[in-house]
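Need a sequence for this fold. Nothing fancy.
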């Protein structure tokens, strides 16, 4: 494992971080070092505005909801410069820059009636809208909620989100994916700032390159969203919204070290020049220690060296034109396998190892011209190159994905019309026998959507999309949503629609990638289709100044034409065909969250009970690795003096069906129910310094070895997919974050 590149990057970023910290001290030498408080009231025409969202940006980033008297409090802050922003449905957002040196800073944030609302989410409907106004149920998870536990990637960060389950698909190289409501990872579309550039080959290892340091919030839509986002949005959408340069701190440095050898370093800088605001970020990760707690001779954690560079810039003219662009470069050197493996064993049969080199580049841009109101042009391009060995088998692949979107929004009284035209270009090539030439494809599409507001109580949304595929012709995907708000604090949403997905066989199935078997198609594969309906009831219960929010969801999705692989009919052949039957995922989900006593105590609790199964030739069986139920929780307790924050988070998983194996290699075909808990204690010190200690998997729960016939990894019975729980035991980490405010 060669970590010299990462070691050099760590040293450079560390030196840069020391310089940034020196600048912080010079710029804020008048700070007292004592915790300060920013409090105030949100008003409109002299009257309090209840329920306004108030965001704080600076050395600390937080969000609260104003109480029934419009009051808000941010306590236990470090001295420094902050930006406070208030927003409320139907009003223009307002911002104030304040310098907090000591004691209490009192503010009055004055709202104005809105002509054009600032965006909170675009995932559900594409035009910017507030979550509370959207007819489509959108769950928004802030960076503060993701920060409750230590995490080094997007997959790590979503472990505690209700309805989402990170799934490890290989117990050696740790390919992973994100399941929504029990459906397999490829059914989830992962977007970056609304752009679908993480699919296919990029979804196998690319999700590890989305580091939490650049995430502003994660937006989640459950159920088919193919009407807006096309293929790969069949089960739902996870949209990663990166940080806005306008609200990012001037500079940050974050370093952490875990007791098992993992080291991370993140640094960012937010320069500005006139109307241009930018964010530059670098992230490095290194894990070079071989760990084998379960004694199977294989590493429990992949040995990784990776580095990511990210840049984002926005420009806005006085006339209202906006231009945004971002770019990301990512490199990873990953290894999982037996002890004693060296680079000279790459592709050999002396010691088994899976070594993957990944290079990835992403570019995105969007333009909102002032001359054509309602028009938005956006595009993205992603390059992904993988050079890897799975034991003695080499797999080298390259993929290009381009995406273009032209959106036009027009308000006509009670109607908001959205018209869109898209084009998706893909190019894929690998060294397997199944790919004898480069696979090129262009998928053009159009969609239309109308959102009709029937007064203040009912909103109806209807839309349809048509995509033209070379092999499948025109595919139409309609959807409809209804939002009913009979009372101010009660909202009911009903969403129904269809989804489709064209399967990328050679990037989603490890067995197909090895080239050990001949790949055959029993028929011309039709796209997978789905029909779905979901009902959401959102209720806000006033409990003094600490309202509780309750979400109750019912969901049902039926899949047809599901594509399945037959490994049993012929030991030398993998035969793919559409399933003779159907698949279903259905269930109910309940979530509660509350902010008690102005951020003194925050908690979220959620549970999803699901029934996920396949019916093939009249025989019903449970879906593999889909738990009967899954619960999540997160609790934050803030102590004003000393300025401490304690986070306790975790999840509990019910039993799930597991693969069966031939005699001599039997394993249980049902997993036990289990739970995993994390703790994190943070001290918010002066000069924008946060210092924390964290313990992950505090009860040291592990499933044991995930490998079948680990003693004969080059044999026919070796299998790496038996992963249903934690493989890595208890981990202790310490870290520090320095933020320099604007």
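Here you go.
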């Amino acid at each position: 494992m060669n970590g010299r590149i990462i070691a050099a990057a760590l040293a450079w970023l560390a030196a840069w971080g020391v310089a940034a910290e020196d600048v912080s001290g010079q710029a804020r030498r008048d700070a007292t070092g004592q915790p300060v408080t920013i409090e105030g009231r949100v008003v409109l025409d002299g009257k309090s505005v209840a329920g306004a969202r108030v965001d704080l940006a600076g050395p600390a980033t937080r969000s609260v909801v104003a109480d029934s008297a419009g009051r808000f409090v941010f306590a236990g802050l470090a001295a420094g410069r902050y930006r406070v922003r208030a927003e409320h449905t139907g009003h223009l957002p307002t911002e104030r820059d304040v310098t907090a040196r000591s004691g209490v800073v009192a503010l009055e944030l004055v709202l104005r009636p809105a002509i054009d609302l600032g965006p909170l989410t675009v995932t559900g409907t594409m035009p910017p809208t507030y979550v509370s106004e959207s007819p489509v149920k959108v769950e928004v998870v802030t960076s503060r909620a993701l920060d409750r536990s230590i995490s080094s990637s997007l997959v790590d960060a979503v472990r505690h989100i209700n309805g989402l389950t990170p799934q490890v698909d290989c117990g050696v190289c740790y390919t992973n994916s994100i399941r929504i409501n029990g459906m397999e990872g490829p059914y989830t579309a992962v977007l970056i700032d609304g752009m679908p550039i993480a699919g296919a080959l990029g979804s196998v290892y690319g999700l590890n390159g989305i580091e939490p340091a650049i995430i502003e919030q994660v937006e989640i839509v459950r159920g088919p969203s193919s009407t807006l986002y096309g293929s790969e949005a069949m089960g739902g959408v996870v949209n990663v919204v990166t940080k806005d340069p306008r609200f990012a701190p001037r500079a940050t440095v974050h370093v952490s070290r875990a007791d098992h050898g993992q080291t991370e370093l993140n640094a960012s800088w937010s320069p500005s020049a006139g109307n241009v605001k930018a964010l530059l970020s670098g992230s490095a990760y290194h894990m070079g220690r071989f760990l084998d707690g379960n004694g199977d001779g294989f590493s429990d954690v992949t040995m990784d060296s990776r580095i990511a560079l990210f840049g984002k810039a926005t420009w806005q003219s006085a006339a209202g034109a906006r231009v945004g662009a971002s770019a990301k470069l990512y490199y990873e050197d990953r290894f999982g396998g037996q002890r004693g493996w060296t680079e000279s064993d790459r592709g050999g049969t002396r010691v088994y190892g899976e070594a993957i080199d990944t290079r990835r580049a992403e570019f995105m841009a969007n333009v909102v011209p002032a001359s054509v109101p309602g028009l938005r042009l956006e595009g993205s391009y992603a390059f992904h190159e993988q050079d890897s060995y799975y034991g003695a088998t080499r797999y080298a692949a390259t993929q290009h994905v381009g995406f273009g979107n032209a959106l036009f929004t027009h308000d006509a009284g009670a109607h908001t019309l959205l018209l869109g035209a898209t084009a998706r270009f893909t190019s894929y090539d690998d060294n397997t026998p199944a790919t004898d030439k480069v696979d090129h494809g262009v998928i053009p599409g159009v969609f239309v959507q109308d959102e009709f507001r029937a007064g203040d109580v009912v909103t109806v949304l209807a839309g349809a999309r048509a995509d033209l595929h070379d092999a499948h012709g025109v595919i139409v995907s309609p959807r409809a949503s209804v939002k009913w708000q009979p009372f101010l604090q009660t909202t009911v949403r009903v969403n129904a629609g269809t989804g489709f997905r064209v399967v990328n066989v050679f990037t989603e199935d490890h067995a197909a990638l090895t080239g050990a078997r001949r790949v055959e198609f029993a028929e011309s594969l039709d796209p997978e289709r789905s029909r779905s309906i979901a009902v959401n009831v959102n209720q806000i219960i006033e409990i003094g100044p600490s309202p509780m929010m309750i979400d109750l969801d019912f969901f049902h999705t039926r899949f047809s034409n599901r594509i399945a692989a037959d490994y049993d009919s012929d030991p030398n052949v993998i035969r793919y065909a559409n399933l003779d039957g159907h698949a279903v995922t259905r269930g109910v989900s309940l979530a509660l969250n509350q902010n008690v006593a102005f951020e003194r105590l925050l908690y979220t609790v959620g549970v999803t009970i699901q029934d996920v199964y396949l019916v093939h030739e009249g025989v019903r069986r449970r879906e593999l690795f889909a738990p009967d139920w899954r619960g999540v929780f997160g609790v934050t307790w803030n102590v004003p003096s000393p300025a401490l924050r304690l986070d306790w988070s975790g999840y509990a998983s019910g039993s799930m069906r597991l693969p069966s194996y031939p005699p001599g290699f039997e394993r249980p075909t049902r997993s036990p129910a289990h739970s995993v808990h994390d703790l994190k204690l943070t001290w918010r010190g002066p000069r924008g310094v946060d210092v924390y200690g964290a313990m992950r998997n505090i009860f040291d729960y592990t499933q044991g070895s995930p490998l079948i016939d680990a003693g004969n990894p080059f044999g026919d019975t070796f299998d790496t997919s038996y992963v249903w729980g934690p493989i890595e035991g208890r981990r202790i980490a310490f870290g520090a974050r320095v933020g320099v405010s604007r």
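For context: Confidence is low (pLDDT under 50) at residues 4-32, 114-122, 511-517.
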